[in-house]
Amino acid sequence: MLHDPNRVYIFDTTLRDGEQVPGCQLATPEKVEIAKALEALGVDVIEAGFPISSPGDFQSVVELSKAVSEPVICALTRANKGDIDAAVAALKFAKRPRIHTGIGSSDMHIKYKFNSTREDILARAVEAVKYAKQFVEDIEFYAEDAGRADNVFLAQMVEAVIAAGATVVNIPDTNGYCLPELYGSKIRFLKENVKNIDQAIISVHCHNDLGLATANSLSGIINGARQVECTINGIGERAGNTALEEVTMILKTHHDLNLHTNINSKHFRQISDMVSSMMRMPVQPNKAIVGQNAFAHSSGIHQDGFLKHRENYEIIKPEDVGVGSADIVLTARSGRHALKHHLERLGHELDKANLDLVYERFLILADEKGRINDEDVLFLANEVLKAQ
Ligand code: KIV
Ligand code: ZN
Asked: Which parts of the sequence belong to the Pyruvate carboxyltransferase domain (predicted)?
């Protein structure tokens, strides 16, 4: 298989892992709208759903398969024939179908979820991949709870499923347990110890229980993974999944990594708003890249530095992620430079003495009001100028 070694594939699971969030369920037409926006964003794979889980989810996979042509359409299954048959049927219209099948890989899951043994689980994993491969060429295998699995057993499982036909091997940190070094070394271990690893792409799928999903995904990529599973706004089970906008902007910002994706980051704000409103899931204001405050400068020291040269306090251009421009917020923490900037923007070039007078009044009002808007600035300027 020939792959550009510097290309990182983006597997979006907003409509599967993301949609598992209580209260975020979507109707099929809404899913189709999001899928089209994901296609325009440039994702490589859309995980459209888990067809066996409900008739509605089955139908969504059918409709998404018809509506989208560029990205691979992927359907989730457990490692059993019934799930795989449902996925095959739901993917009937997909131009580029993928089945995502898998089973637990940690001793915790093997013992307490499956009441089974490593040998039995390995056999079931291989059987599921072989069964799915009869219907669909592109098979992704997930080793659930790989974050807590024994590396030697995980390597054995990965080698066996690749030999059975898996084209992508997903190494999920299902419980968001790993630290970046631990997760990265797991991917490195697989790269170094699985004989046929070059016949498949390693995928990272990290949950955010300790706030490390993005850092862990990045560590996996640096150690050789070339597909990352993520969601818009980082939504997903419990504390969520890796945020698509974060991991892709890291790759875009750090040229030293020499890795690239097909994502057009200018769509980020628009698709973030779309997912947030359709799923009734507000984005926290300080969320990286897409939060309301992600490009708002509010302290006097930062505002002054920003106004002297924006790169003093800006590592990403807001226009690169679909946000109009940076925001110089006026509060009691702002300095004269920020106030002068807004006065000039509103048509007032004041000399130093008048600026000082407006600034004195500004601080009193800002202490009372919190945030100062354009009307307040104009009112204060007019008050000072009228008194002369
Ligand atoms: O977190 C996980 O392990 C998953 C798998 C089903 C891929 O979502
Ligand atoms: Zn998951």
From this structure: 8-269
The residue to which tokens 């990045």 are assigned = 218
Cβ atoms of 308 and 266 within 8 Å: the answer is no
Q: Is 109 in the pocket of ligand 1 (CB under 6 A)?
A: no
Q: Which residues 6+ apart lie within 8 Å of 383 measured at CB?
A: 361
Q: What is the pLDDT of residue 3?
A: 78
- The whole-angstrom separation of Cα 278 and Cα 367 is 37
Answer yes or no: is the C-beta of 47 below 6 A from any ligand 1 atom.
Answer: no
Q: Which tokens belong to 185?
A: 């070394």
**Cα 39 from Cα 36, distance rounded (Å):** 5
CA–centroid distance for 145 within its chain: 19
Average pLDDT over residues 30-53: 98
Q: Which of 13, 7, 36 is nearest to 244 (CA)?
A: 13
CA-CA distance, 256 to 164, in Å (whole number)?
A: 36
Nearest-angstrom CA–CA distance, 307 and 287: 23
pTM, entire model: 0.97
Question: Using a 6 Å cutoff on CB, does residue 205 contact ligand 1?
Answer: yes
The C-alpha atoms of residue 342 and residue 327 are separated, in whole angstroms, by: 11
- Beta strands 296-297 and 327-328: pairing type? parallel
Share of the chain above pLDDT 70, in %: 99
Backbone phi and psi for residue 201, each to the nearest 5 degrees, phi listed first: -95, 135
Report yes or no: 144 and 175 within 8 Å, Cβ to Cβ: no
The one-letter code for the residue type at 386 is: K
Distance CA 223, CA 190 (A): 10
Task: Dig out the tokens for 195 from the structure.
Answer: 């004989």
- Closest among 341, 201, 318, 334 to 265, alpha carbons compared: 318
Q: What is the pLDDT of residue 388?
A: 82
Count of Cβ atoms closer than 10 Å to residue 382 Cβ? 12
Residues written for the chain: 388
Give the pLDDT mean for 70-78.
Answer: 98
Smallest CA separation from ligand 1 atom 4, residue: 174
78 CA to middle of ligand 1, Å? 10
Closest residue (by CA) to atom 1 of ligand 1? 174
